[in-house]
Amino acid sequence: MSGCATVEDRADSAGERLGKAAAEAQPDPDLPADCRRKERSGVREGEPMDVALIKTDQALGRANARVRRCAAWHDVRADLKKAGLE
Question: What is the C-alpha end-to-end distance of the chain, expressed in Å?
Answer without folding.
Answer: 35
